[in-house]
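Sequence, please.
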């Protein structure tokens, strides 16, 4: 039901309370009342003049969102908070109208329809044309510059981002701006004001689930992307089952995503992602930021060929310490948006290289903000891993490498790479040479005398010696003039100074005295 007047918004409070009470009584846990979450409803307002079209649309959108909240009554507490938040936003928008002021950017974005949404662009219509209205021109330039062979293929890719927090939300935004085909977002948490030290989320998102808040923002940024929001806890039995099923193609049972990005902050969730990806033989990338917020890392996990998360567990887990005992009441980990932005950038850059086949995909890349240090390494699979799915994946990988089909395909790849490298070496470094400059090197083991010809002329004289353009001369004698008189003229004169004298002279020069 869409409410179309200020009076209707105010008078709907009683019906809202009745529906909320009904939902709360059927919920497993008791929820706070709406009065505890928001200010009492104002008395019915007198009739007003019709609202301007754009403002009316904003309020109707908010009312529709309130109606949509009733579709989920599992957790009445969160439901009440969300309804109170949306209702407060509607009242703020009404207050703006009462003052006769234009709808601000903030209020418009809260209403969900303030941003200008462009029409969708099909993958086949992606263009490198450099015009102000083309959102893909700078991305398609990567193809023109030879970085990627066909950037449009990104529209065929799907990525699952698990954990929409400080790293995951920024990674999701980066993938959205790059034009990913489908984005699946997973998180069980809601947005809090305590999250405002991080990037992406805004204060008006408080009370919303992180996945829904992210989808709302990302859809305004790029409507071409298909978004899927999953508000769930993947560490429960039911949540893990729903998580794995959402990653699978319902017809084939195989993974329907090209990559899984783990942006979670605990060992338990990482192990769930690890298990799901091992069972589906799905490549995934893990990321993390240290508790002191000044270091982080990313790691690529390919089942069978690289270490899984159980192969080399964190030191805390390997030491037998329960991760949950490390958290103290009233004490939270530090959080820097700069470090999280760095890790998110490293993660998405690696994901793009993996999906679009350019550059070297990092197996492990760390970041230390204190030392500006970026360690990298390849973490190999552990043959004695205690995860049976990992051991089976390693066995299958070894058998694949020994198969005749793989060896033949590997030989073809090596030959293609060698041919491509030879072709690249044969290309002129610079097609244009306005100044006519050329450099020739002598054959190895032969005459090492080189010839340099400038634009104004010059070239090779007698006996392979160089000739220079008029007005230019060598500062030192050439080899054809090294007679006794010339050597005597240019040799270093003996000053009679010993080593101590020379050291003293050097010291004086260094001191600038």
């Amino acid at each position: 039901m869409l409410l179309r007047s200020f009076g209707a918004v105010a008078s709907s409070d009683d019906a809202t309370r009745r529906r909320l009470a009904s939902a709360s009584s059927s919920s497993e846990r008791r929820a706070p009342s709406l009065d505890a979450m928001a200010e009492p409803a104002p008395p019915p307002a007198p009739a007003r003049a019709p609202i301007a079209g754009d403002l009316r649309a904003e309020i109707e959108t908010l009312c529709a969102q309130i109606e949509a909240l009733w579709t989920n009554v599992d957790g009445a507490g969160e439901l009440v908070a969300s309804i109170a938040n949306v209702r407060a936003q509607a009242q703020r928008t009404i207050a703006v109208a009462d003052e006769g002021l234009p709808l601000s950017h903030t209020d418009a974005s809260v209403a969900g329809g303030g941003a200008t949404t462009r029409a969708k662009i099909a993958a086949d219509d992606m263009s490198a044309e450099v015009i102000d209205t083309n959102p893909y021109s700078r991305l398609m330039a990567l193809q023109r510059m030879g970085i990627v062979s066909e950037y449009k293929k990104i529209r065929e890719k799907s990525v699952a981002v698990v954990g929409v927090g400080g790293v995951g939300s920024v990674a999701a935004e980066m993938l959205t701006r790059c034009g990913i085909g489908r984005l699946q977002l997973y998180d069980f948490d809601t947005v809090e004001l305590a999250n405002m030290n991080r990037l992406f989320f805004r204060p008006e998102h408080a009370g919303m689930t992180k996945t829904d808040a992210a989808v709302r923002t990302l859809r305004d940024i790029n409507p071409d992307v298909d978004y899927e929001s999953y508000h769930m806890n993947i560490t429960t039995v039911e949540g893990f089952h729903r998580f794995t099923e959402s990653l699978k193609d319902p017809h084939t049972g195989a993974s329907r995503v090209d990559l899984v990005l783990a942006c979670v902050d605990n060992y338990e969730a990482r192990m769930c992602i690890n298990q799901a990806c091992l069972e589906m033989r799905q490549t995934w990338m893990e990321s993390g930021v240290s508790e002191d917020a000044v270091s982080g890392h990313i790691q690529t996990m390919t089942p069978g060929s690289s270490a899984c998360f159980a192969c080399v567990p964190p030191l805390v887990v390997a030491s037998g310490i329960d991760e949950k005992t490390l958290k103290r009441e009233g004490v939270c980990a530090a959080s820097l948006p700069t470090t999280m932005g760095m890790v998110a950038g490293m993660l998405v850059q690696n994901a793009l290289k993996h999906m679009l086949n350019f550059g070297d995909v990092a197996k492990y890349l760390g970041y230390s903000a204190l030392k500006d240090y970026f360690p990298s390494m390849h973490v190999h699979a552990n043959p004695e891993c205690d995860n049976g799915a990992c051991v089976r994946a390693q066995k299958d990988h070894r058998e694949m490498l020994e198969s005749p089909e793989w060896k033949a395909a590997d030989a073809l790849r090596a030959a293609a790479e060698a041919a491509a490298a030879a072709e690249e070496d044969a290309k002129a470094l610079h097609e244009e040479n306005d100044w006519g400059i050329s450099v020739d090197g002598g054959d190895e083991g032969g005459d090492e005398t080189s010839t340099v010809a400038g634009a104004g002329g010059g070239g090779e004289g007698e006996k392979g010696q160089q000739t220079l353009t008029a007005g230019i001369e060598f500062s030192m004698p050439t080899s054809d003039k090294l007679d006794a008189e010339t050597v005597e003229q240019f040799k270093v004169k003996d000053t009679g100074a010993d080593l101590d004298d020379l050291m003293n002279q050097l010291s004086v020069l260094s001191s600038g005295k």
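The chain has a mean pLDDT of 77.
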